[in-house]
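May I ask you to comment on the folded chain given beneath this request?
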Amino acid sequence: MKQKIIMKLLAGMAGLGIALGAASVHASPEKDRQELIKYYMNKYPDVKVEDYVYGALAFDADSKAQYDAIMEFPPYDSEIDKGRKMWETPFKNGKTYANCLPNGGKHIAGNYPLFDEAKGKVVTLHDAINDCRTANGEEAFKVDDMKTMGLLTAYMRTLSDGMMMNIKVEGPKAMAAYEDGKKTFFSRKGQLNFACATCHVQNAGNHLRSELISPVIGHAVHWPVFRGGDNLFTLQRRYQGCFKQVRAVPPPQGGTTLNNLEYFHSALSNGLPLKASVFRK
């Protein structure tokens, strides 16, 4: 049954005007973003661009109303509080995260991932947190540990709630990292021969079984998310889940492939406000 549904999705792609990245291989990040916005506006003229911060909820008023009701009393508040306590607990040397992050860690999450010219690579918010820890004599957290890095990041993103996504891609090395992330997004992979774009561009707004598929524009602004209550998912944990769903071996969290993918992915949401931390089914 699942295979039949997947084949129907693939068949529906044939008549769409946007191919898997072929039309914009050498486009600038802003042109990529504008082309995707135009694509969604043509396909869903009644959906406002700013509503894509709600993911698939932008296509379903009833689900959005349920989400709004849940967000009045989020079931994961106690988990966010654990992240707050980690944030406020001093290091052994007496300093805190606020002492070594720009602007005390407030209103900065929308700048990440960023390309660090000195390091010659993309730096995520997780990297910035770990750099802060090691600079103050603490051990780095594992980026895939939801009880440490996950909860701390979930709280830290609340300090930037409402900030506009502001990913900068400047210089040839940064552009190369962006293009590498773009290649990962548009490349087919796994036994099912799917790309990220198969679902989140061509089939955004369509149903996969009982679930609506979310659009790539607006994706990056609302992670980490709490799914089904207090089950925390960071963006790169979700990437790995997508790789597994198409029966591909997922790259490691915090590695070059997923960091560059997050860089490209986040740039597509430039100009949209962060929504942290949120509930998803």
Observations:
- The radius of gyration is 19 Å.
- The chain has two domains: 2-73+171-271, 77-160.
- The longest strand covers residues 114-116.
- The first helix runs from residue 2 to 12.
